[in-house]
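Technical annex, item 7. During the second reporting period the consortium partners agreed on a shared format for inverse folding records so that results from different sites could be compared directly. Each record opens with the tokenized structure and is followed by the designed sequence. A conforming record, contributed by the partner at site C, is shown below for reference.
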């Protein structure tokens, strides 16, 4: 099996011949099929093909250069299984490795969806922060880990990195807005929840002031906090660009953004300002480290992918 993406193109009739030539000349493209005149909205010819992942971004750029996204349509989807000698040949001929390839259009689309300030995003943020707040009071790392997994904040952080590198101010602005609203909403809900739980006798200020050896790192940032955040940012961005979702789960449980916000909220609800300040610093350290790491990772990938001398392997059998 190879890393293959499927392209579905609607082309105005006067540009179809140019699209066909473009696909025929691209070593990464295969399985080209043309259906003349079948498209109705927008009107035109339907063209489908498969493309090796490592050649997808360059091909998409050339197709967009023909104005197809404006006058027609370009759709891209992942192929889970491809059993084809032709696809194998295209993958071998395309320069680079599919796992290293960055399909910028796909990344922009994915992170753009993750950065929307939706009701679901705010609910996830509130739920994650409340869980982390309870975990802080109980000194239970398992609840902290659960909150890290539930928290949706890595999506906007990744979108911010992509927006900065790709110079997409709207994407970067939307991501900043999601972060600027999401964390305060989660913290506000956590403050209210802490007051309600305290009134019900389920938690108390003494729990916050007691020794909490398993979770005290959340409000006591040090140099290692920045190192962990930076490494998590690198791993998180690589998991997105290489479509390795399993790696992303590991990233989520290594960063204390949501737990830091939760600890700050709980400390504020009880008026423990020094711990709230420490938690705020931890949150700032992690966010800045992740963004810096994400931006640097994308810049390195962009430079490395365009460097001369990348692997080009051609099957001698043709």
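Designed sequence (site C submission):
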């Amino acid at each position: 099996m190879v890393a293959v993406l499927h392209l579905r193109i609607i082309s105005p009739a006067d540009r179809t011949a140019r699209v066909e030539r473009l696909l025929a000349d691209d070593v990464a493209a295969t399985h080209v099929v043309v259906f003349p005149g079948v498209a109705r909205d927008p009107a035109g010819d339907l063209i489908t093909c498969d493309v090796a992942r490592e050649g997808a971004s360059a091909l998409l750029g050339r197709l967009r250069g023909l104005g197809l996204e404006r006058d027609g349509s370009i759709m891209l989807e992942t192929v889970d299984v491809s059993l084809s000698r032709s696809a194998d040949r295209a993958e071998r001929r395309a320069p680079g490795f599919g796992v290293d390839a960055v399909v910028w259009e796909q990344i922009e689309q994915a992170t753009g969806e993750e950065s929307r300030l939706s009701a679901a995003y705010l609910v996830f943020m509130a739920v994650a922060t409340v869980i982390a707040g309870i975990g802080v009071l109980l000194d239970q790392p398992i609840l902290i880990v659960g909150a890290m997994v539930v928290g949706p904040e890595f999506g906007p952080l990744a979108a911010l990195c992509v927006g900065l590198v790709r110079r997409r101010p709207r994407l970067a602005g939307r991501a900043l807005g999601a972060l600027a609203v999401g964390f305060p909403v989660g913290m506000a809900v956590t403050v209210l929840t802490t007051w309600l739980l305290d009134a019900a006798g389920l938690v108390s200020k003494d729990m916050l002031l007691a020794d909490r050896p398993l979770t005290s790192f959340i409000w006591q940032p040090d140099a290692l906090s920045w190192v962990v955040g930076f490494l998590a940012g690198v791993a998180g961005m690589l998991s997105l660009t290489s479509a390795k979702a399993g790696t992303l789960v590991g990233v989520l449980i290594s960063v204390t953004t949501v737990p830091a916000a939760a600890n700050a909220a709980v400390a504020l609800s009880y008026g423990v300002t020094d711990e709230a300040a420490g938690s705020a610093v931890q949150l700032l350290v992690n966010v800045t480290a992740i963004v810096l790491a994400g931006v640097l990772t994308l810049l390195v990938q962009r430079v490395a992918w365009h460097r001369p001398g990348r692997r080009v392997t051609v099957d001698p059998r043709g």
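The radius of gyration is 24 Å. The chain is about 60% helix and 10% strand. All partners now use this format for quarterly exchanges.
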